[in-house]
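Hey Z.,

So I finally got round to the flavin-adenine dinucleotide thing we talked about over coffee. Here's the setup:
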Amino acid sequence: MKVIDRLTQLKSTLFSFELLPPLKGHTIQTVFNTIDRLVAYNPAYINITYHREEVVYRPDSRGGTEPVKVRRRPGTVGLAAAIQQRYNIDVVPHLICGGFDMHETEDALIDLDFLGIHNILALRGDADKVVGKFEPKIGGHRYAVDLVRQIDAMNRGEYLEKFMDKPKSTNFCIGVAGYPEKHPESPNFESDLRHLKEKVEAGATYIVTQMFFDNSKFFNFVERCRSMGIEVPIVPGIKPISVREHLSLLPKIFGVHIPEDLAVEVEKCADNRQVYELGIEWAIAQTKELKNADVPAIHFYTMGKPDNIATIAGSVF
Ligand code: FAD
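And the result:
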């Protein structure tokens, strides 16, 4: 079933979560263990992230280091298919612009279609950590909106190859990312919302947000989206804080704001065990308020660690 149908035909707020493919060389069983822990809360769908290759420094033959390109977490498409088959739960693989030219994107979409996967979260992809900015592959897309346009074109039977005999239309449901505290690279909120609206006009039917720790940021974001005519369902993304280092890491990596009340409480914790418990408590409070506000679904970032998400889901869903 398409995610948009679930989001619009729901009786109450849905539960969904995101998983990472295992590190290269690790077993798929670790992912199944995460799902086994969360399946009792009846996830409406499961997202699987996509990871492009990255530059890392490895020892070279002269005793120094050299940059090498590695993909630490391949396997998104295979993992998505394996999950859908094993659990009979709809999967939403992430597809990114980074590392793909348009023909490779088309091939990936054909693979997904053949595997019976009809939901995609269409993203630009993270910037390269070493280069510090996003660079598309030659012949690839610079912005998520261009990827959305390509998927939407295939949904209308338009492939890159123009001389095909009666090409089959695909039937993908396309979600995109939104940023309640604006995307870190955006010059301002208005510009980010304008580009978000372009993604919806290009064919995205729902939005999933970046994590946030202050619900007023989310409610304000939804209001601003509505006031500029973005009418599609907006699903809040929640990540519980679990270690003290998140206070500085999450703002730095994701451009999100940690409310002062939360920062004060984290600083009072004697150790990371207490931070972990506090993160659960905070996320439960956030989730309850969002559910009371009738959000269509609440999407959890598991980072492959299901225990805190299970506790939160157990007390809210
Ligand atoms: P875009 O929508 O392309 O926006 C990127 C920036 O460009 C924004 O500042 C936007 O305002 C601006 N912009 C957009 N269009 C234009 C235009 N036409 N002209 C000028 N500026 C424009 N990353 C991964 O690598 N793998 C994942 O699996 C993954 N999953 C994610 C899931 C969620 C729910 C979220 C919120 C993020 C995820 N990310 C993932 C991170 C995401 O790739 C980064 O946040 C990335 O920096 C932006 O992606 P986007 O799709 O929002 O990009």
